[in-house]
TrEMBL record:
GO biological process, one term: innate immune response
Organism: Tachysurus vachellii
Keyword check for Iron: no
Entry's family note: Belongs to the NOD1-NOD2 family.
UniProt name for this protein: Nucleotide-binding oligomerization domain-containing protein 2
Subcellular location: Basolateral cell membrane; Cell membrane; Cytoplasm
Leader peptide range in chain numbering: none
Major location (coarse): membrane
Topology versus the membrane: Lipid-anchor
Length: 982
């Protein structure tokens, strides 16, 4: 098909490709290329870009214009799309590759202005880091006025747009300006710009920078949580958590703290907002605090001159309209002099400034991009300022780091994100480090660590830092509990409550008796009522007046323990910002619901039924919209907190805690509430299962769970009620459970195993893209006997997790497949898999792609393969087994009569490895597909494979793309053997 036809037929797709991202950058890049290839002349450029046109109109105009210019122009347009669009977006498009070689049409410029046009695409990238220098050079040479500079530096422009404006202005000013710019570019020194700016800082700016540093330093030096009895220096207690960046295609990569603000993991270069998201207590605020401290000490973010930290919770209190200047100076740090100069410096040097916003989920208004505000001096309500900062309409170029729980991150906010970082809590090593840092006494630390290791359900909870902190704080109660207790989140919070009450009891009566809850029930009820009220209005504050209303003092609350001050500076000001950690507030609310003597169970019904109504279809939008509907007046308002509260209600009503609770609430009423919850949970699960669509022909019946399913399972676990679990899944006929991207961590794994172990028939469990980790994997083991396939792509699993999996797996008759793509596996894990292969002669598929397995691992695996007579699929894509590994595997599989699929793609295999594999091809009577893409096999290696294929009756395809072969080799060799795929 000719290029003109391609442009016409794919008009909608081409339009979509340039307009879907809400940023003009792809269109601008296409235009840059077309200008440099002379498809567009300067006049066309102005016509297309027209000042106030929306993005879609510009793109339509461009497509129309190029279409009228004929076949060659269309061909170049497609080539420009090919260069600009990311691979994923090109997937469905036909861009007529090979029509034209774009390199051939690049003209040799005859003037400086022409040079700027011909090199425009490259110059846009190059000048990005030198806009200020270029403007200075142009001003000095008298080519630009300060008005020209202002036009270029308008804060609404992205950095690339500023460069394009600059280039346009230079063209407008003529050949002299173009020459000056080219000369400047030739002499750009390699020093980063900030070094120069540092030298030019006015004394006002230097003084302000010092003041800001010292204020940030004092705010972040102590761990901001719990005053009174224990204040930790952040340096002493901070423990690295797991951080991951979400990439395009929803892949994730690991990040370090220092990468949070860097380029690593960027998905949209034009945006400035970095989101750190994570569930309650995963350490988002602490991470931010650590960044602040390291900046203040001058050890990290050294290219940032001014850092402004904000707390969204505090900003809720700002009722007046204010300008950006007031926001910065009044809410962060007041300049003693030269306010205007300092503010001007901030406006002029956005790349040297960082804003951080902690706890967007606590901000009362939800993000919207409906109201634009771009003037830094114009006052506006606080939410308008914030939302425009996030979008980049205001203070484009200033990096902003925002933390939030996931539920508060709307799709409309996501489109303005430059990267998304997931805070996933502690790894098992992190838990160990944290506990040891927490306890000065090494003996106690060791006992706590051992107690955790002996109670894996609890260890699972501790990967969330706030639990780790609670457990460390209540270590005396923990060590006195005996083995295996506590098991559930409710157990942990009851332990906290007991600890807290214990502290209020006079020294001489310190040992609490069995009736401890009853003795303190009045206060617990009052706090519970307060908490419930707070949750109904999404209010997380327990302010002084609130407490006074309930005749509770801060002493009652136990300042040293329960109070969670998000920002240490708040502590001095606790009358206004006292704060109980939200999960604790949910727990008190649940206690109130359970202890309430009111016979009417409508609160419980509302609490549980609102979730149960959701169907099993995985549709976040529907689910989210449903969740946002207010459920009922007497029910808590916000869904995530509602979920946490209902889990506690289920836990408190469980038979295990009956003896404690029954002292404060009549037994008959408790029983009624218990039955009510049991009924809701069981009905909820049934509804969920009933809504599973029938399987597509020839496919397995599978269920894609959504968050409400995970919540139901967690409630059942909190109740520790095997009967509901049994009932719920007894009649379930599903062959495959899909729980991908469901925030499944160790806690959820414990609950899943508790329920799924009662399934009648074996299922596949797909948990790809979660945070299962070694601890979670261990938690899943109780349901391994009903699991035929386990999929754990991207789950931070290491060799230790595999050791435990295999230990159990060899005893489970129906466990036949495991997929562990992209985890942290090394050669160590292969000895366990070798054991599995030796012991289980019904095992079918082992997929270990994208791990860190070398030739040594392959050799160990080979030992297992030698004895195995069942494996059909073996995947080692993206490891480093090399020739030696390939030889070992090929040799071990010589006599094998089951393997039909083998992937050694991207493993550094050369011709020697290929020769060994050729032997396998020759001898195998079952092998059908061999994947050897992205290796370094040369022509001689391929020739031995061709020879082998002559004898093989089973092999259908050998994939050899991306090896060390010339075009001629490929042409010639593919002519010799059609089963080779190049
Ligand atoms: N990296 C860490 N090192 C040491 N302790 C930590 C770390 N992260 C979190 N903690 C502990 O866990 C507590 C809760 O962490 P933090 O407040 O940062 O969580 P969060 O994700 O902001 O929670 P929320 O969503 O409820 O606001 C902290 O007060 C601290 O005790």
């Amino acid at each position: 098909m000719c290029a003109k036809q391609l442009v016409l037929r794919q008009r909608t797709e081409l339009l979509g490709a340039l307009c879907c991202g809400f940023t003009a950058e792809p269109l601008d890049c296409v235009i840059d290329l077309l200008l440099s290839w002379e498809v567009l002349i300067w006049e066309d450029y102005h016509n297309v870009q027209g000042l106030t046109k929306p993005l879609c109109s510009k793109t339509r105009d461009l497509l129309d214009l190029v279409y009228t210019k004929g076949e060659q122009a269309c061909s170049l347009l497609l080539a420009a799309f090919d260069q600009v669009l990311p691979e994923a977006q090109k997937a469905g498009l036909c861009l007529g590759k090979g029509h034209l070689k774009t390199g051939d049409i690049k003209k040799t410029p005859t003037s400086a202005s022409e040079a700027l046009l011909v090199d425009r695409p490259a110059l846009v990238k190059k000048i990005r880091d030198h806009v200020d220098g270029a403007l200075d050079a142009l001003m000095e040479a008298g080519c630009f006025t300060s008005q020209d500079c202002d036009e270029v530096l308008l804060p609404v422009y992205t950095l690339s747009q500023k460069v394009r404006k600059l280039l346009d202005q230079v063209r407008f000013r003529g050949e002299g300006a173009a020459k000056t710019l080219l000369q400047y570019l030739e002499h750009i020194d390699s020093k980063p710009q900030c070094v120069k700016e540092e030298r030019q800082l006015s004394t006002e700016c230097i003084d302000y920078k010092k003041k800001l540093r010292s204020s940030v330093d004092s705010q972040s030096r102590l761990l901001s949580t719990y005053g009174g009895t224990g204040r930790f220096s952040l340096d002493n207690i901070y423990t690295d958590g797991i951080l991951e960046a979400v990439q395009r295609e929803r892949e994730v990569t690991a990040l370090r703290l220092q990468d949070v603000v860097g380029l690593h993991g960027t998905i949209n270069e034009e945006a400035d907002t970095i989101l750190v998201s994570g569930e309650a207590g995963t350490g988002k605020s602490t991470l931010l605090q650590r960044l602040h401290l390291l900046w203040a000490e001058g050890t990290l973010l050294t290219d940032i001159l001014m850092l402004f930290p904000f707390s969204c919770r505090k900003l809720n209190a700002e009722k007046k309209i204010l300008s950006l200047k007031e926001l910065l100076f009044q809410h962060c740090c007041w300049p003693d002099r030269g306010q205007d100069k300092i503010f001007q410096f901030i406006l002029d040097h956005p790349q040297l400034v960082l804003f951080t916003f902690d706890g967007l989920d606590e901000f009362r208004q939800s993000f919207t991009d409906e109201e634009r505000h771009c003037c830094p001096t114009q006052p506006a309500p606080i939410h308008i300022l914030l939302f425009n900062l996030f979008q980049g309409t205001l203070m484009k170029g200033v990096k902003k780091v925002v933390t939030s729980r996931p539920h508060a991150v709307s799709p409309s906010l996501k489109q303005y994100l430059c990267k998304e970082v997931l805070a996933k809590g502690f790894s098992p090593v992190g838990i160990d480090h944290f506990v040891r840092k927490h306890h000065n006494d090494a003996n106690i630390a060791t006992r706590v660590v051992e107690a955790l290791k002996a109670n894996t359900a609890l260890l699972g909870l501790c990967h969330i830092p706030v639990f780790c902190w609670i457990i460390s704080k209540c270590y005396k109660e923990l060590l006195g509990c005996g083995e295996g207790i506590p098991q559930t989140v409710t157990d942990v919070y009851l332990m906290v409550l007991k600890h807290f009450i214990q502290k209020r009891v006079p020294q001489q009566y310190r040992t609490l008796g069995k009736g401890w809850l009853q003795e303190h029930q009045e206060m617990v009820r009052r706090l519970g009522q307060l908490a419930l009220e707070g949750l109904k209005t999404s209010c997380y504050l327990f302010t002084e007046p609130d407490l006074q209303k309930c005749s509770i003092t801060h002493q009652d609350l136990g300042l040293g323990f329960l109070i969670h001050c998000k920002d240490f500076s708040d502590y001095a000001d606790y009358k206004h910002f006292e704060f109980l950690h939200i999960t604790m507030q949910c727990f008190f609310a649940a206690l109130y619901i359970v202890l309430n003597n009111n016979d009417n169970c409508s609160v419980i019904l509302n609490l549980f039924q609102s979730h149960c109504k959701q169907t099993a279809h995985f549709n976040h939008k529907i689910c989210f919209a449903h969740c946002l509907k207010p459920v009922a007046d007497d029910c808590v308002a916000e869904i995530p907190n509602q979920r946490i509260t209902s889990e506690f209600v289920a836990g408190l009503l469980s038979q295990r805690h009956r003896n404690l609770i029954v002292q404060s609430c009549p037994a008959a009423l408790l029983e009624k509430k218990y039955k009510q919850v049991m009924k809701c949970l069981s009905k909820g699960l049934q509804k969920h299962f009933k809504s599973i669509p029938p399987p597509v022909k020839s496919e397995k019946k599978s269920m894609h769970a959504m968050p409400s399913f995970v919540w139901l399972i967690k409630c059942i676990y909190e109740m520790q009620e095997s009967e509901i679990a049994k009932d719920a899944v007894a009649k379930l006929e599903v062959e495959h459970f899909k729980l991908i991207y469901c925030n499944i961590g160790p806690v959820e794994c414990t609950a899943l195993a508790f329920v799924l172990r009662y399934l009648q028939n074996p299922v596949g469990i797909q948990l790809d893209f979660n945070s299962v980790g070694d601890v979670g994997l261990e938690q899943l083991l109780p349901c391994l006997h009903i699991c035929h396939s386990l999929y754990l792509r991207n789950n931070n699993i290491s060799d230790e997790g595999i050791r435990k999996l295999v230990e159990k797996g060899v005893q489970c008759e129906c466990f036949k497949k495991v997929a562990l793509f992209n985890n942290n596996l090394t050669d160590d894990c292969t000895k366990y898999f070798a054991q599995l292969l030796k012991a289980k002669n019904n095992f079918l598929a082992l997929r270990l792609g994208n791990n860190k397995i070398t030739s040594q691992g392959a050799e160990q695996l080979a030992e297992g393969l030698r004895c195995n007579t069942s494996l059909k699929y073996l995947g080692l894509w993206g490891n480093k087994i090399g020739d030696r590994g390939a030889e070992a595997l090929a040799d071990a599989l010589k006599e094998n009569t089951t393997l039909i699929w083998l992937s050694l793609a991207d493993n550094g295999v050369g011709s020697e490895g290929a020769r060994a594999l050729a032997e396998l091809v020759k001898r195998s009577t079952t092998l059908e597909e061999l994947w050897l893409n992205q290796n370094c096999i040369r022509r001689d290696g391929v020739e031995s494979l061709i020879e082998a294929l002559k004898v093989s009756a089973t092999v259908k395809e050998v994939w050899l793309r991306g090896n060390n072969l010339s075009m001629e080799d490929v042409k010639e060799l593919s002519g010799q053997e059609s089963r080779l795929i190049f």
